[in-house]
Amino acid sequence: MTQPRKTLILNTLLMGLLLVPVLLLNSCSTTDAPATNDSAVQSEQTQPEQTTSGETPSGETVAVKESVKFKQDGGQERFTLKYKSDGAKLEEASGAEIARLKIDATQKVKIKDAQDTVLGYVVPTTGAWKLENAEQSEELYILRQQDDGDYKLETGGDQPIYRIKKRDYGFEIESPEKQSLYKIKVKEGKTSLRNADDTTVLYSKDKVSPIAMAAFGFDVLKPEQQAALAYAVSQSTP
User: Fold this and answer.
1) Among 106, 135, 155, 158, which residue's CB has the most CB atoms within a 10 Å radius?
2) Domain spans of the chain?
3) Could you state, in chain order, the average pLDDT of each consecutive group of 10 residues for the chain (238 residues)?
4) What predicted TM-score, i.e. pTM, was given to this entire model?
């Protein structure tokens, strides 16, 4: 073999040996980069999602009870019925408590004042709600549902007090002599209690059933009894 050919072969081998580390370095860099990115993506995917109040980590929504605000004509807040897991409480616009309502497994509602003194009960039966005294020894009033969709409020001795007549707009509260006393009208998401002159006495834009609103037109009842009856009725009527 001639000397020039030997020199060419040696130079070629030398260049090959010099290129091996460079190729190995490039190979390692190219392999490592995707691995780092995959790790970051995996870490991001396995990160637990942040939950907000009212949700479980699995995404299930936790039921939150409603608060129903009642306002006077002109928009001034009169009181709020705040729902709780075991009942509700009635508060003035200032936040002062008017009544505490506690419901049991039988849907019986215990009525208490702000000092936690028992004032009475609302006891539901088939098609009726009975207002009883604090000792549950006397039935004071009974709200009865009629087959035709009407209601009537009577004393514990079956004396008629109000007739609550079903109307296209909601209900009308009448005396036993059929004198119009109040109307409960539902229109455009607003449920209102109106007097005989058709002036709004009370209204709410929150979800409240018309017959529950009617309870606030039963003037023979005290505010605590009205709220308890409205709450008890709302548990079993749309």
Assistant:
1) 155
2) 1-38, 67-234
3) 50 49 46 42 36 35 69 94 94 95 96 96 96 98 96 97 97 97 96 96 95 97 97 85
4) 0.72
